[in-house]
Known about the structure:
By secondary structure, this protein is mostly beta strands. It has helices at residues 11-17, 97-102, 184-191, 198-207, and strands spanning 4-7, 22-24, 31-34, 39-46, 57-66, 84-86, 104-117, 123-144, 156-166, 177-179, 214-217. The chain has a single domain (4-233), classed as Alpha-Beta Complex (hypothetical protein yedk fold), CATH 3.90.1680.10.
Amino acid sequence: MCGRYASTSTRGDLLAAYDAVETVGEELPPSYNIAPTQRVNVVLERAPREEPDAEPVRMVSSQVKWGLVPFWAKDPKIGSRMINARSETITQKPAFKAAAARRRCVLPADGYYEWMTGEDGKKIPFFLHADAPISMAGLYELWPNPELPEDHPDRWLWTCTVLTRPATDAAGHIHERSPVILPATFVDPWLDPELNDRDDVDALLNSIPEPRLEPYEVSTAVNSPRNNNPDLLRPVDS
């Protein structure tokens, strides 16, 4: 699964890395301990809000909360239970199938945290990373607040979820599932708005190669989302 992650790239870094041309919302500061329900950076392709009939453009948005709220949900609190979505079932599950076909995104990250149970039963945190920032596959949704008028600027709540898959390689020794990580050549197909057939989405997911991540143990300070500083990424043996 993915319950916490770090993302320290600047907005300029993200615009360059993903060939994005537009930004939405204020720039978020670097975060070393992103937790569910917080606002996160996502990369997506969508027509500008002011021109809904225009061609989609690639943008970096910071106005998205982590924890997907389906458009049909009665209570947005459901999002806290939907921070992850199993990639094997997103095209069938009612909560995800609409977004799987039309609202896919990328969550940029330096890496993510996972906890392994030690011999004494205590949870040991690890940071899993690659040689460069990673692109986690995600879905996003827009939830209309029924208590606000249609023209209210806060009527639409933007939320997202991180896709997961069975874990292999080093990650599999720590937890049985890991985020779906997109190699650079898969980012464009994943964000492509013209990919709207759910069978084709499944085929794309099934073609994504297994990631090669390196884990190292980190301080239990990461257990609290109140802690957020560069020391969280420091290996415990250093």
